[in-house]
Amino acid sequence: MNALIVVLLVVILLVLVAILIAITRNRRHAVRVAKAPTLTDPFRDTDTDAIRGDPRRIKPGDIVEIRGRTYAVRGTLRFTEGSWSWSEHLLDDPEGHRRWLSVEEDPDLILVLWSEVSGATVKPGPATVEFDGRRYTSQEEGTARYEATGTTGLNPIGTVQYHDYRAADGARLSFEKYGDSNRWEVARGEELTRYELRVYPASTP
């Protein structure tokens, strides 16, 4: 009888040990899952990026197609202001027309195609400005640092003052002043949809 009791106690003890081991493993697995970082935006349209290219990765040497017109990416400016960052890319088409494409996430992807306005006399500062038949309202202003790669016509690093305006119909007007320059560069912008842009990355060795 005593031997039977001992055997039963040993069996019960082994069962309890097995249960404790299983519980410990499950807890460790749960901790690993809980600590796993979220590496990508769950709402990001990765299918579109795979098919049309990712605007966030545009760099000098790439080719972009906007509304059926092809541009070469000549240079890129990467801007930072505090914890915020965005990019502007200098585009050049076969006829030599140059434009800028800005790319930022706020938090959605925002793409704007800019055209320089030569000879504009309008200045930033007021809450609203009138230009070319539109009234633009001030949106944001500040000073950012930039790093340039490729051909941009600017120093490799520097600062820029900017003041951005927007009209009721969504048209944009931007003022930028680089480094110690006293001249505001004026550009008119048009927001693009994600599907109006296709990116062809440059081949890498």
How does this model look, in words?
The longest helix is centred in the N-terminal third of the chain and has 34 residues, at 2-35. The chain has two domains: 1-30; 60-200. It is of the alpha+beta class. 20% of the residues lie in helices and 45% in strands. The chain has an eight-stranded antiparallel β-barrel.
Short description:
The chain has about 200 residues and is α+β, with helices and mostly antiparallel strands.
Numbering strands along the chain, what is their spatial order in the largest sheet?
Answer: 2-3-4-5-10-9-8-7
Overall radius of gyration: 28 Å
The mean pLDDT is 84
Label the structural class: alpha+beta
Distance between the termini: 80 Å
Q: Main beta sheet: strand number and arrangement?
A: 8 strands, antiparallel, barrel
How many domain regions? Answer: 2
Low-confidence segments, given as residue ranges, are: 20-40
* General shape: globular
- Per DSSP E runs of 2 or more residues, the count of β-strands stands at 11
Run of helices and strands: HHEEEEEEEEEEE
- Helix fraction, binned, reads 10-25%
Number of helices, counting only DSSP H or I runs of 4 residues or more: 2
Share of residues in strands: over 45%
Oligomer: single chain
